[in-house]
Design goal:
The chain is mostly helical. It has a single domain, classed as Ferritin, core subunit, four-helix bundle (Ferritin, Up-down Bundle). α3 packs antiparallel against α4, α4 runs antiparallel to α7 and α6 packs across α8. The longest helix has 29 residues. The two termini are 24 Å apart. The structure holds fe (ii) ion (FE2) (2 copies). One fe (ii) ion binds next to α7.
Length: 202
């Protein structure tokens, strides 16, 4: 891969995932697919919550509504993959990564500031998910799953861009990029302290 392509895939993330994570993740496809399905459900649910809370913001409504449909289509696709393999969708699990990211949400700001926080946290989750899907698409043993994960990687990369660009509509670009770099540093710290698990996308 060229240097430019590598940079492009970093999505700003400061701590790359060890590719050996794929070896543990693929040991139980039922577990990793179940966790993945709920990541998609949470992405759809979060988008709906943002739309409801900021219904007065036309750009939020117009740009996030299609993402709700895409995330829900992702959920259905992952569930179909589970069923195709004779597995069931398991129970939802606690997502330590997302719980810790939510704690980064700055309190006490105005309404737009709070929206920017939500958009940047969503962008972070998209970026990290995209990075993980890319690793799966490259290194997973099952050949049919390479294309499966590649498709998610492409889609989540688009979402990441939408959230980051939307944030710039509600606070000036310098503020957003400064806050974004604080989030990136904090996200790397969270990742550093989370032990990679076979049954978690994050
Ligand atoms: Fe998704
Ligand atoms: Fe997404």
């Amino acid at each position: 891969m060229t240097k430019i392509a590598k940079e492009k895939f970093k999505l700003g993330l400061e701590l790359p995932t060890d590719p050996r994570w794929v070896n543990i993740a693929e040991k139980s496809l039922e577990e990793i697919l179940t966790d993945h399905a709920y990541c998609e459900q949470k992405a759809a649910s979060t988008c709906i919550s943002i739309i409801i809370k900021y219904a007065d913001k036309k750009d939020v409504l117009e740009q996030i509504s299609p993402i709700v449909s895409e995330e829900w289509a992702h959920f259905r696709k992952v569930v179909a993959e589970l069923h195709k393999r004779g597995f069931e969708l398991g129970k939802q699990r606690k997502d330590d990564y997302v719980v810790q990211l939510m704690q980064l949400h700055k309190k006490g700001g105005d309404r737009d500031e709070s929206l920017v926080e939500k958009l940047l946290i969503s962008a972070l989750i998209e970026a990290r998910s995209c990075e993980r899907f890319r690793l799966l698409s490259l290194h997973i043993s099952a050949p049919e799953l390479k294309a499966f994960y590649h498709e998610f990687m492409v889609s989540e990369a688009q979402h990441y861009k939408v959230f980051l660009n939307l944030a710039k509509l509600y606070k000036d670009e310098n503020y957003v990029m400064e806050r974004w770099s604080e989030f990136l540093a904090a996200e790397a710290e969270i990742m550093r302290n989370i032990t990679p698990r076979a049954d978690r996308i994050h």
